[in-house]
Amino acid sequence: MKRILLSIIFILILLLLNISCRVDIIEPNNPAGNKNIPVKEGKENYFNLAINADRLSTEMNFDANFSSENNSVSLKVNDRQSGTCTLRVISSENKTLYSAIIEINDLDIRQRINQGIPSKIRLICDNFTGKIKIVINKSPI
After folding, report:
1. Residue 124: strand pairing partners
2. What CATH number is associated with residue 11?
3. Of 29, 70, 134, 138, which is least packed with CB atoms within 10 Å of its CB?
4. Residues ≥6 apart with Cβ < 8 Å to 103
5. What is the mean pLDDT of residues 20-45?
6. Beta carbons within 10 angstroms of residue 108's beta carbon
7. Number of domains in the chain
8. How far apart are CA 12 and CA 2, in angstroms?
9. Per-residue pLDDT tens for 86-131?
10. Whole domain around residue 74: which residue ranges?
């Protein structure tokens, strides 16, 4: 009986220590804890960019690897507090395929791009604070 009681107390102490010492770990590629550092993933016919901006003023240019003219862009903005950002998707012929100015909070846009092949993605921020997620991918025909 004494042994069972000691085992139960030991297990309860371990559980309490585990709960009180819990630390939330932010994964290295999670933009939630990284201010002003874009997290990018790109592969053929797919581009993904997330950034948690804090008074960010910069121009970022990224290469895109697309082989199709049938694509879509998804742009989401959360927690925007100040400033603006301009997104441009540019073809290899230097033609703007898609452009958006981010000036409002809680933006959620999905639009097709079918007048050229994306080659570059340009994001220009002016004192921007907020969270941006951009996904460009090949659309089904």
Report:
1. 59, 86
2. 2.60.120
3. 29
4. 84
5. 68
6. 10
7. 1
8. 15
9. 999 999 899 999 999 998 888 899 999 988 999 999 999 999 999 9
10. 2-138
